[in-house]
Amino acid sequence: MKSLFFSIVFLFLLGCEAKEIPLADHPGAQVYHGKVRADVRCYRCHGHTGEGSSRAPSLVKQGKTIPLPLFIKTVMNGRDRMPGFASVLSEKEIASVQDWLEKINTNDH
What we know:
By secondary structure, this protein is mainly alpha-helical. Helix content is 50%, strand content 0%.
């Protein structure tokens, strides 16, 4: 019985490999993945590269159509189920996230 349990745990852990973060040193990637502030982790809802999930929309699609001032306003004030981050992120940090998303979602990286 123990061997079955450990086999299942092992197989589960194999499927839980860490995803590589493109341009991980970019300041926007650091903010997005909680490296700047532990209480800000955009990837938990929006996916590791902004691809979206069942919890939150794709930032790849929206990032191409939303002007930077509106992106900043949305992140600062929140929208729908998303909380606002005005008390923890600066406009510069939010702009760096949009810049990172644009860079990793083009063929230039």
